[in-house]
Amino acid sequence: MKTEKPYAFRERLLAVHRPGLRDINRHADKHEFEVKNGASINILGKTGEVCKTAVQDLIDFMRISMGVYCRMAENEPQGTVTVALAETAGKDLGTAAGYKGFMLEADEAGIGIYGYDERGIALGIYYLEFLMSCERAPLLGIGSVRKKPTLSPRMVHSGYGLDEYPDAYLSRIAHEGRDAILVFTKDVNETPGGYLDFNDLIRRAARYGLDVYAYSYLHSDMSPEAPEAEAYYDHTYGRLFRECPGLKGVTLVGESNEFPSRDPHAAKGKYYETAVDGIPSDKPSSGWYPCEDYPIWLAVLKKVIRRYNPEADIVFWTYNWGSAPEEARLKLIESLPTDISLQATFEMYEPRIYGQTMGICADYTLAFEGPGAYFKSEAEAAKKRGIRLYSMTNTGGLTWDFGVIPYEPMPQQWIRRCEAMRKAQEDWGLCGVMESHHYGFTPSFVSQLTNLAFLEPFEDPEALLVKILKNEFGTANYTAVDCALRSWSEAIRYYTPSNIDQYGAFRVGPSYPFNLSDSVNIPSDERAMFGNVIVAPIYDNGASPANAPLTLRIYEELTFLQTMLRCIREGLTALEDAPEQNEETERLYNLGRFMEHSVITGIHAKQFHVLKCRLYNAKNSESFANVLNEIEALLCSETENVEATIPLVNRDSRLGWEPSMLYMTDEWHLRWKIRQLRYVLDSDLAHYRTSLSHMQNQ
């Protein structure tokens, strides 16, 4: 792999089709139809922009990936490939009749692509491209295939840049089966990054069959029971939907939308202003508690939003109060309106057993496939009330287990999550998902898998994975890649999803600072939405009644992470045996190496915390001196770990970057980490040794 300049990964995100896939020795047999040069792709009937955009995409795919030149036609008597709405063509979609349903049909004369709607036509085209890519030839088997997605919406944030959606990237999102994008919204045409023409984005996204949801950062500084509340919220939420009538809906989450609540269980003020005389409140703010007046707040929002868009999807997300008493959470759901969507996170707040101790899944994690008890309880309540059920599942391919990688290459664990989600569809009517947050959506073999896993009739996900991996990495490399990914799928099950891990060493990987006497945080770009605000530079106890005390838990967690590291290294060894190394296998190996060094930093951070505790509780000068020596050895080992990470991030500009933090683990930040470690070695440890020497000389 060559060295990449910053943001070079965006070129890959904008490459919709892979060039030169065609195997020139592969041609149609008597059971297949082959598309050849000069073929026409004929659109029957009256169609709109979604259909024409998808047909042009198919023409581009044929040229770029298959070396076959085709032309678009409309309503010609006969075409090599016929594209139409099923109703127009008189085709029976059977069980595929429904939103985005499609049928592919091939006989000796040609191929037909028929959709229940235009989005179905587009999805059928993308599915045909996938099949042809797997075959390495522009072929389709004689017969018919009917498919229909079982989830909608499938919402993602941008992985190109925070709220940045170039057309080619929108196309990539659509190819991966997603049908909605999210935009952080502070006001009409205003995001945390500044001005964005919402209506232009809505128009452009619509061409690819994508809806746009506002992820609300709008102020809610007035009680919904105040006399002027309706006018206040009409000027915020109402105005948003009046000025942007094409918005599909809005996502509401407690921490971003807390309001002045009268619930006696909630503190007054927002979460960052509840302290009195510097003493924190013993109550959570309204953003972190299922307050009894949320239904009143929702009623006001519903009224002002649906005044301008009667079909707006109002998504009420319970992310922030999964740790609240179940009785309070379910009481709130029992009083919610039934014409909104309830979104519950799939795996959070679930207890995790570490040997003889316990912790909880503090935030999004793949370590536990789900569903958690929190999700189950709310899903059951939603079903009982008849409320549409969504979930945050992170099935775009990334959770908060690693903060600055593009996706988690652990397909067997993703399969377990998909199977659990399908069970949730059956049991509680799960119908829509959010699949990424501010870390964004990066298309990968994982997102292909989680897309195809929810096309009905369902296929065995392991069989799908075989096709995907052979297509992505080459048939000759399949065995080595599969072996590596199975090891990594086992590795993630030993991850420790505590707050201090997810907001600490694993948030930024090897650039995470190790502080002894000073609290130094990693520098961040002032243009970033969050930057280092979501990095905790001090490894603390994270006291919580849901966790065992850290002093009891940390040793078991270390054992888990050491097992995780062993599994990652086993996967790396397997990848080294890939017989036909190519760019895809090399990039996967590079990602695996970065994960390896991130886990090492995670282990070192825990060991460093233990050593600091021993240092501060040393009973004599000899013990104190011995611990200083151990700290020095650990910091030297971490320095080597950081140095070994530098070539990895230089080969892949996506490593070390995250849309809301920007670059946090590029070469500059890694070299900053080395300087920070050197400071601790040369200053903090030297001061302690000088102090110890003075004491011993008295």
In short, what is this structure?
By secondary structure, the chain is of the alpha/beta class.
What key phrases describe this protein's structure?
single chain; 698 residues; alpha/beta; seven-stranded mixed β-sheet; globular
Sequence-ordered SSE layout with sheet pairings:
Blueprint: H1 9-13, E1 32-34, E2 39-43, H2 49-66, E3 70-74, E4 81-85, H3 86-89, E5 102-107, E6 110-115, H4 118-135, E7 139-141, E8 143-149, E9 154-156, H5 167-175, E10 180-185, E11 190-191, E12 194-195, H6 198-207, E13 211-216, H7 229-243, E14 249-253, H8 254-257, H9 294-306, E15 313-317, H10 326-334, E16 341-345, E17 351-354, E18 357-360, H11 373-385, E19 388-392, H12 411-428, E20 430-434, H13 445-452, E21 455-456, H14 461-473, H15 478-491, H16 499-508, H17 550-575, H18 583-616, H19 621-651, E22 657-658, E23 662-663, H20 667-697
